[in-house]
Amino acid sequence: CCCCCCCCCGCADAGANPAHVAADLLSQAEHGPDSQVVLLALPGVDLDAVQHAVQQQCDQLPRNETARKALSHSCVVQVRDREEAARISNAYAPEHLIINVEEPESWLPMLDNAGSIFMGRWTPESVGDYASGTNHVLPTYGYARMYSGVSLDSFTKKMTVQSLSWEGLQVLGPHVAKMAEVEGLEAHRRAVTLRLEQSS
Q1: 122: buried, middle or exposed (CB in 10 Å: 19+, 13-18, 0-12)?
Q2: Which whole-number Å values give the CA distances from 41 to 1, 64, 156, in the listed order?
Q3: Which of 92, 134, 98 is nearest to 113 (CA)?
Q4: Which stretches does DSSP call E strand in 27-138?
């Protein structure tokens, strides 16, 4: 993630340790001045404590100037509930999504768009960078709405194989012939209709 903007979205509830929330946000902010971090704060999050922890920890970073620039265009969004947090996160489609809440697995069915998700109190994004086994070539700039991260699957060759029975061609054939006709592809249409006519 050294050549383009890092984006991180953290969801925290009242039980999240402010120092951990701050460390997660800063771990992304230190990547570069164009990085952005967003905290989706559920009711009960002590935002003063988080802000204090961010300032205190940032002062201690060797890359504190870089982190400050990133923080200058980052934000905190106070949300009503986890459904609102999930909607915002899905729209933002972060490269990294940290779910620092009680029962984080219950959030998974609501989450559609993130490069990589870090679940629970003990899963900082840093483990994804260095040790948890996930690939770190992830979509940035909201492209997680359309693309997945690079994985071993990205380097495998796949083929699709189709085989219709006579009954299958009878069911699909008329629909395929009509679509081909609408598209003006007569040879496509005939490849179906000749078979249907010949076997009737």
Answers
A1: exposed
A2: 26, 24, 40
A3: 92
A4: 36-41, 75-78, 96-100, 116-119
**Three-state DSSP class for residue 42:** coil
Query: Which of 96, 136, 183, 197 does the annotation list as catalytic?
Result: 96
In this prediction, residue 151 carries a pLDDT of 72
Q: Which of 20, 95, 183, 186 is catalytic?
A: 95
pLDDT of residue 157: 79
Nearest 10 degrees: CA dihedral of 118, 137, 37, 5? 180
Taking only the tens place, the pLDDT of each residue in 130-181 is: 877 666 777 666 666 666 777 777 788 787 778 889 999 999 999 999 999 9
* 96 a catalytic residue: yes
Q: Phi first, then psi: what are they for 156, rounded to 5°?
A: -100, 145
Residue type, 126: S
Global confidence as pTM: 0.75
Q: Are strands 75-78 and 7-12 parallel, antiparallel or unpaired?
A: unpaired
Q: How far is CA 54 from CA 4, 24, 100, 145, in A?
A: 23, 10, 16, 29
What does the block give as tokens for 54?
A: 């961010």
Residue the block writes with tokens 């008329």: 174
Q: Respond yes or no: is residue 181 known to be catalytic.
A: no
